[in-house]
From TrEMBL:
The organism of origin for this protein: Sphingomonas floccifaciens
Transmembrane segments: 21-39, 45-65, 85-104, 116-136
This protein's name: GtrA family protein
Keyword Membrane: yes
Alphabetized Pfam families for the sequence: GtrA_DPMS_TM
Assigned keywords, A-Z: Membrane, Transmembrane, Transmembrane helix
Length: 138
């Protein structure tokens, strides 16, 4: 079983990309969730400002890790400028999704400030895998 996972991890298959994306994206997502949670629980910062700060840190880390490892060998990579532009557009979609979760949980539903972390960890990454695989690193 372990050898099969290693094979998929190193392959250019969708499964291999998904596994690498889960590892890399999971790490970047946990970093963002930790930054957001730390800011809203320890400072008087507004939840949306905390989300923006976490986004800025994570977008740079995400680009390097996803382009060099998660989706390595996928797509033509013939136009680095286009890929970079598309990644930043996709990251803005991710940010908008997380800002929506923040608004929905904290403002609209009046839930505790930490609650946007749940959809940030489980919903946004799945949507972003599809966007990154099928549009950014195509």
């Amino acid at each position: 079983m372990g050898l099969r996972v290693l094979h998929h991890l190193n392959s250019g298959s969708v499964l291999g990309q998904l596994i690498r994306y889960a590892i890399t994206g999971g790490g970047v997502t946990l970093l963002g969730a930790g930054l957001y949670t730390g800011l809203v629980l320890t400072t008087p910062i507004h939840p949306q400002a905390a989300m923006a700060a976490a986004y800025l840190v994570c977008v740079a880390a995400g680009y390097v890790l996803h382009s060099r490892w998660s989706f390595r060998g996928h797509g033509t990579r013939d136009n680095p400028g286009r890929t970079t532009f598309r990644f930043f557009v996709a990251s803005l979609i991710s940010y908008a999704m997380n800002a929506f979760w923040t608004w929905l949980c904290t403002s609209a539903l009046g839930l505790p400030d930490w609650t946007p972390v749940l959809p940030l960890l489980f919903v946004t990454p799945l949507a972003m895998f599809g966007i990154n695989r099928n549009w950014v690193f195509k």
